[in-house]
Recover the amino acids of this structure.
């Protein structure tokens, strides 16, 4: 869907709502890739908490949406 929307945008056929949705999907992909790369770095148990604390100070959201939904109280198995 995201790639189709970008192709339609280059042709001048995508709406603003479609572009917002495609951009949100692209942001989530970049967050997932960034988190995966950070996890394989050496000293990641030391660097990850530091990176997340600095991101929080600057109001930067690094946590992917799928991971945030795992911590919802509604999603817990009993």
């Amino acid at each position: 869907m995201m790639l189709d929307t970008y192709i339609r945008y280059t042709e001048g056929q995508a709406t603003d709502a479609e572009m917002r949705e495609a951009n949100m999907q692209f942001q989530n992909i970049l967050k997932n890739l960034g988190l995966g790369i950070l996890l394989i770095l050496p000293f990641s148990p030391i660097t990850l908490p530091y990176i997340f604390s600095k991101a929080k100070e600057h109001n930067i959201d690094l946590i992917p949406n799928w991971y945030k939904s795992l911590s919802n109280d509604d999603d817990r198995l009993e």
User: Anything to note?
Assistant: The chain has one domain: 2-75.
